[in-house]
Specification:
Order of helices and strands: EHEHEHEHHEHHHEHEEHHHHEHHEEHHEH
Number of helices: 18
Number of strands: 12
Strand content: 5-15%
Radius of gyration: 25 Å
Helix content: 25-40%
Shape: elongated
Distance between the termini: 31 Å
Strand order of the largest sheet: 6-5-4-1-2-3-12
Length: 409
Amino acid sequence: MSGPLHGIKVVEMTSVVLGPWACQMLADMGADVIKIEQPRGDSNRSLGAANNPGMAALYLTCNRNKRSIVLDLRQPGARDALLALVRGADVFIHNNRPQVMTKLGLDYADLRAVNPRLIYCGAYGYSKKGPYGRLGALDDSIQAASGIAMLNEMVSGEPRYLPTVVADKTTAITAVYGVLAALFHRERTGQGQELEVPMFETMVNWVMAEHLWGMTFEPPKGKPGYVRLMSKNRKPYRTRDGYIAVLPYLDAHWVKFCQITGHPEFIADERFRTLADRVRNIDATSETPAAIMATRSTAEWLQLLESSGIPHIVVNTLEDLAQDPHLAATGFWQSCEHPTEGRLRMPSFPVNFGATPASIRRHAPRLGEHTEEVLREAGLDPQAIAALTASGAALTAEQARSSVGVGGD
């Protein structure tokens, strides 16, 4: 069955994680996604384990269900080829600074001139409306700018980046729902539009949803920072033989926790009587269960808590996730046979559509694997395609492999 975006054509001009992962989500939902790459390809083609040059792990996890075309936009003819693709597209997504797109002659006004119904999405560091708009950005710099690094300083004593590209991935999800909303608007009105999805503003919105706290009011009624999250004791609890996550958060959870662990005295303790009390006394609220959890094994606690209604779960390592029984039962992990890279493990798209399920239909493409195919579909005749590939304005997979040594066999 076709995904909910079957029939939608997306042209992406992105690299690293933000843009590719966003476009992979659209592709998983059925969109035909054409990935435009520079002659050396997406930088992530070289990051991580690999069987062949240009087909490394980080590229493979962000680029399934796509077709790859190589255009060297410094060469005459490549821009015209891109515009030919855009004429038949529904969505164009890039993650370059706006100034770069203007210099290339590929800003919204340029593309709207050839396709007024186009949804044009730019996802990059900072809104072009503000003084940071000319700055480049990567995930770490946005974690710094948006306050995430200093959240760690407030807890652990030094600013640190989270060990995941949270800004890239959160902005990618934001770009996806922005594109979907714009497509919905176009269905109603016939109008295309430009979207700007800046990482900085996205992540400030994300961080301050809970951390605006006392600064919600003007004048402020206290400092920013959701105090429950700022305790150094907010972490999984050590058991006799490992770790467990237990969250007796709501009042009913707390009462039940005290009862089943044999500590009813904490139910009436003035520090813990209500959720608001427990948040105000968050260090004690964390330390008290910690002492209790240390008295039994993880398996014993899991059995005791199973029917309690208290949120609890094992603490998985990254390796554990590959064997997690819930993920196995839901079919989350899928395997596919890549024609050049062998058997690959892939996570499923997380939304379960009842009528139009997302699917893995295509392997992550070799660099330039679909250049000729896509250009033919865009209306270029064989002579025009041959001229582009001969000049280096476009590259096939064979040319990309021989010229820069990527793409596999």
